[in-house]
Amino acid sequence: MSEAVKEDPGIPPDPYRLVYIIFYWLGVGTLLPWNFFISVPGYWMHKWRTVEDVPEFVEAAVVVNETAEGNETVSGLNEMQTSWGPYLSIASMVPNVTILLLNAAFGHHFRTQPRLLISLALIIVFFIFTDVMTLIEDTDHWQDAFFVLVLASVVIINVCGAIFQGGLLGLVGKFPP
Hints:
The protein is mainly alpha-helical and 177 residues long. Helix content is 67%, strand content 5%. It has helices spanning 3-7, 18-38, 41-47, 56-59, 79-106, 112-134, 143-173, and strands spanning 63-66, 72-75. The chain has a two-stranded antiparallel sheet. A hairpin with a 5-residue loop joins strand 1 and strand 2. The N and C termini lie close together (10 Å).
């Protein structure tokens, strides 16, 4: 820390760097929605599996094909399984960036504390909603609706996450050096 900062009487003492630690963990928390969805690919591959009236041993088989170059590629993934990652990325990043830009342009018109509290409360509510949805084991016959429902939850969580991030960064900007 520079001498000018240490001697400034307007800066409150923080000998244990608690402010730094709190904001560090708040920053980690803003990454939680993304990590929540990307850290369980096996679950999503199971949820989006092809459902047919065939024996389990046939359903679990993975087909290996030879390509023209002689490289082996794994096929056997259906459309939902192959498109889950890109749809998840779009449902996460487009609302996040859009709301962050809107927040940068219009965020100063709204109070910080309600933005932080409401967005954090909504993130928690939709995490609970998503967690409860994981308890529903048999989604085989309504996979399309489940797919849309999960992506809608991702969009709402990321919109709230972006509002929280913008409010948090605005709050950090008010702190002394």
